[in-house]
Design goal:
Number of helices: 14
Distance between the termini: 30 Å
Shape: elongated
Structural class: alpha+beta
Number of strands: 23
């Protein structure tokens, strides 16, 4: 392992005099240089230095208003009556223009501790603390000796408590948390929820649990800040994504979102930790949550009755999705749908849904197979506007569309993109028109109709909201001069 440090910039906005600030900066810079030759002790020393900063480096910040989700106009679905469909002329080839192609960045590996966290010798009788997150029971090593109190919420008390947490007694707790993240394939958002539930199980709801959450989150490699408001300690997390409808604090150009209740003003400890990295809301692999099956639901295509499936969804995954914040990469709202569409479908659903769909399309060519999947998504689900159901825009993971009684164009497009990639192995892109989302599929056989060229490859429009439409048909009223293509993994 390379023995070097990602030094980064640590901005200390202190309430003390400027000269005192410079002294702290010099001490921390000297520590980082010294740590190059003392890597094994780096984490211990980093926490000692950080605790000293916590005792002094606080300043008042004002909350900045939440960034609202862009308001979309409502484009109603279009239905082709069956009699009219049968009289349609053969579809002709037509290349459609594209205003922009959006390629979301490749998700990076999750953050890691700045240095290995060593296992500590076990007492004769280990003490474990169990807790539940998204219906999944977990446990960590935490005993009576590790409990602590913050009788007063002061900078000095928080710094001293941080120093205590950085002792070897809490190493096994951190190792257990990181092991759970790895074994359960938890994304960053689920991991943060896990740490919060863990800390509350260990210490109850209060400032002590908040500090334990913040410490475990920081030691796992994540970028966070501590705050105080109204007698309560707060955890603020940095995100590489823009999170909508949630107020934030801005420090050194980075947005920090308050975990839990918000406040208009807050004292922040504006000090960074070495090698810290912001939270990512990408979910790159299936999260291993305990299974709590929902009631069975039978879904049948109207044109192809043989395309029918009885599905059950994991309620715990639905609960996770309900807590998942709406966001986009950077400030590009178009990337939002890729984050949902690129999330793998859970094994519970694949076990019940995929065998039935595979049987229904077995032996068919690509176009025929897609036509059946397309009509299934078009006609087996009830369309309804998010504003009416949810009071505002809300995108679904593919799993959620199979659970909730209503869905809209974006939910259908996300589901179809997942099915086509998983069952047929074909590439899919999302096509955004103002107020509407559709899909386009890269067939390997000749399929005539409306198509787009993306990096020289031909993608045929397949719109799951254009009811009864075939592959190659664009829903009426769509303006391709404003169309944006979103590339999926």
């Amino acid at each position: 392992m390379r023995r070097s440090l990602l030094t980064g910039t640590i901005c200390c906005l202190m309430m003390a005099a400027e000269a005192q600030t410079d002294n702290f900066r010099q001490a921390y810079d000297a520590f980082q240089q010294q740590a190059e030759t003392q890597y094994e002790n780096f984490r211990d020393e980093a926490n000692r230095q950080y605790a000293e900063f916590v005792k002094r480096a606080w300043e008042e910040y004002r909350v900045l208003p939440a960034i609202p989700k862009p308001k979309e106009k409502e484009v109603p679905p279009v239905v082709i009556k069956e009699e009219k469909r049968k009289r349609q002329q053969p579809i002709e080839d037509k290349q459609l223009p594209i205003e922009q192609t959006i390629v979301p960045p490749t998700p990076q590996p999750q953050p890691a501790p700045v240095a290995p966290i060593r296992e500590q010798p076990q007492p004769v009788a280990e003490q474990w603390q169990t807790f539940t997150v998204y219906g999944t029971e977990m446990r960590v090593r935490f005993g009576d000796a590790e409990r602590f109190r913050l009788p007063q919420l002061t900078e000095q008390a928080v710094g001293e408590a941080w120093l205590r947490l950085s002792g070897e007694a809490y190493n096994n707790l951190l190792r257990d948390c990181l092991t759970l993240r790895m074994e359960r394939h938890l994304g960053d958002w689920a991991y943060l929820q896990m740490l919060c539930q863990m800390a509350e199980a260990c210490l109850g709801k209060g400032n002590e649990a908040t500090l334990l959450t913040a410490y475990a989150y920081c030691q796992s490699g994540y970028q966070m800040r501590l705050g105080m408001a109204n007698g309560r300690l707060r955890l603020l997390y940095a995100s590489e994504h823009t999170i909508f409808d949630k107020s934030y604090f801005l420090q050194d150009g980075t947005r920090y979102y308050v975990y839990g209740d918000e406040a208009e003003r807050m004292q922040l400890c504006a000090v960074g930790y070495p090698q810290e990295r912001p939270l990512s809301l990408w979910i790159t692999e299936e999260q291993q949550l305990a299974v709590s099956k929902t009631k069975l639901r039978t879904l049948t295509a109207k044109r192809y009755p043989a395309v029918t499936a009885t599905v059950s969804v994991n309620r715990n995954m639905v609960d996770f999705a309900d807590s998942y914040p709406t966001s986009c990469v950077g400030d590009d709202f178009m990337t939002r749908w890729a984050m949902y569409a690129d999330t793998p479908m859970e094994q519970t659903i694949r076990n019940s849904l995929y065998p039935a769909l595979r049987k229904a399309i077995a032996g068919l060519g690509e176009r025929e197979a897609v036509e059946r999947l397309l009509n299934w998504v078009q006609t087996a689900f009830v369309y309804e506007y998010d504003d009416k159901v949810w009071g505002g825009d809300r995108a679904f993971f593919a799993d959620e569309t199979l659970y909730y009684p209503y869905c809209d164009c974006e939910d259908r497009s996300i589901l179809l993109s997942r099915l086509v990639r998983d069952l047929l192995g074909l590439k899919v892109v999302l096509v955004y028109y103002p107020g509407h989302l559709a899909t386009a599929i890269r067939f390997t056989e000749t399929v005539k109709g409306d198509y787009l060229l993306v990096d020289g490859d031909r993608y045929t429009v397949c719109d799951p909201t254009y009811i009864n439409a075939s592959a190659g048909m664009t829903m009426p009223g769509m303006d391709n001069s404003q169309a944006k293509v979103i590339v999926l993994r």
